[in-house]
Amino acid sequence: MPKKVLIISYYWPPAGGPGVQRWLKFVKYLPDFNVEPIVYIPENPNYPLLDESLLEEVSKDVTIIKQPINEPYKLAGLFSKKSSKAISKGIIPEQKKQSLTEKLLLFVRGNFFIPDARKGWVKPSVNFLSEYISKEHIETIITTGPPHSMHLIGLHLKTKLGVKWLADFRDPWTTIGYHKQLKLTSSSAKKHKALEKEVLNSADEIIVTSFTTKSEFEAITNKPVHVITNGYDYEPLEEFTMDSKFSLAHIGSLLSKRNPEVLWRVLRDLRNESDGFAKDFQLNLIGAVSEDVLRSMNRYGLDNCIKNIGYVSHQKAIKHQKQSQLLLLIEIDSDETKCIIPGKLFEYMVSNRPIIALGPKDSDVEAIIKETNTGNYFYYNSYSSLKSVILEHYKAFKNNELQVHAIGLQKYSRKALTKSLSNLI
Question: Which residues form the Glycosyltransferase subfamily 4-like N-terminal domain (predicted)?
């Protein structure tokens, strides 16, 4: 008889974005390992991105239970719909460019909604789930964050019912990049730290997506910390034609600080130095892009080679990945982002296109790209090497020889990763 496990998540289809993919795929494959997933989600969430196509991937056999949630972002939208939606996506302008409204919203978000704006869902969820868990004889629960208020639901259920609790951190809590931008008072910062420590020391097992986060958490707790990265799934292959241009595609959000001016400078110089490159090159942006980043690109004269497509469904994003000549991955250049492994990296790796990645030194992304031979990783000061590699790729493109020779990808398949999860359950 399959073992029942209750998964508590804020994000679920039709929500879009990478945060949805992780548990959508785990739920898809858990029954193959004799685990019956039951998914608990909000009934009326305020998702910043929608992708209706993901609903098709939810099995009709999966039990999904819902409860209403009160969302403060809806109220914030009365003051500034644009600012509240951008902040909910994690797109935070540079401090010197923030409006008074944006500063106020960030202060309120960081200090009045601890750990996050979904904290109001904790108490009603605990009340509802306590009865449901007892009635359905569920022995194991999993919470996934962010939002990290989901872990507070797990904390209370663990204390009240003594169930086995696995806390899954798709991103860190207090060390994630945007945490410093929330204008926290010293008291609020201490509350965040205290809640993080309590969760880490109360859960039976901790799951993280990177080895850097594992090291960080092991300094806070003696509880077992397991790395289960994000991964790739076997997507049905639509017919597509490779871009005729020498295209460099970025899939996903480009936040204000994901702005490697060294890359824009390299592209400007290559276009200035070669009429052929200037004619052939195209920069495809698929996803939300910060105005700060667009202005930076324009300062380097790239505006006439940019194709700004905007947010698309996951299926269309996969198609863009496969038909682009090169794939671009950018992370903020800071110590806090060394642990961030974007979910799109794994889909990039199986797109059979070379990856150009930029980020901080000694990051987990750098290690994975080197391990799998799927591209090149550069730092924000790597002008010469970055220019040289892009030029090499361009020559290979002109000779119809642009390809990648990936190795060791199987362990990052969603099914292989779900097997590791089932062993913990």
Answer: 107-234
Q: Model confidence at 177, in pLDDT bands (50, 70, 90)?
A: low
pLDDT in tens, 358-394: 999 999 999 999 999 999 999 999 999 999 999 999 9
The DSSP call for residue 379 is -
* pLDDT, mean of residues 262-283: 97
| β-sheet bridge partners, residue 39 | 7, 64
Query: Within its chain, how far is the Cα of 366 from the centroid?
Result: 17
E-state strands within 300-421: 306-308, 326-330, 355-358, 375-378
Taking the C-alpha atoms of residue 368 and residue 341, their distance in angstroms, rounded to an integer, is 9
Tokens representing 106 are 């960030």
pLDDT of residue 209: 96
Q: Amino acid identity of 313?
A: S
Instruction: Please give the structure tokens belonging to residue 380.
Output: 């924000």
The per-residue pLDDT of the chain, averaged, comes to: 90
- Say if domain 3-232+415-424 classifies as CATH 3.40.50.200: no
CATH superfamily of the 246-398 domain: Glycogen Phosphorylase B; (3.40.50.2000)
What is the DSSP annotation of 43-108?
Answer: SS---SSB-GGGGGGS-TTSEEEEE----HHHHHTTT-HHHHHHHHHT----GGG--HHHHHHHHH
In whole angstroms, give the CA distance from residue 413 to residue 355.
18
- Does the pLDDT at position 166 exceed 60? yes
**Residue of 107, 185, 201 whose CA lies nearest to 151:** 201
Tokens of 92: 């935070």
The CA angle 375-376-382, to the nearest 5 degrees, is 165
Give this prediction's pTM: 0.86
Instruction: In whole angstroms, give the CA distance from residue 358 to residue 345.
Output: 12
Amino acid at 251: I
If DSSP codes are grouped into helix, strand and coil, which group holds residue 189? Answer: helix
174: left (phi over 0), alpha (psi -120 to 50) or beta: alpha
For a pLDDT cut of 70, what percent of the chain falls above it? 89
Q: Name the nearest CA neighbour of 38 among 128, 148, 124.
A: 128
The partner residues of 7 in beta bridges, in order of sequence, read: 39, 142
Same fold, 3-232+415-424 and 246-398: yes
Which pLDDT does position 79 carry in this prediction?
42
Domain residue ranges in the chain = 3-232+415-424, 246-398
With residue 275 as reference, give the H or E element that holds it: helix 275-280
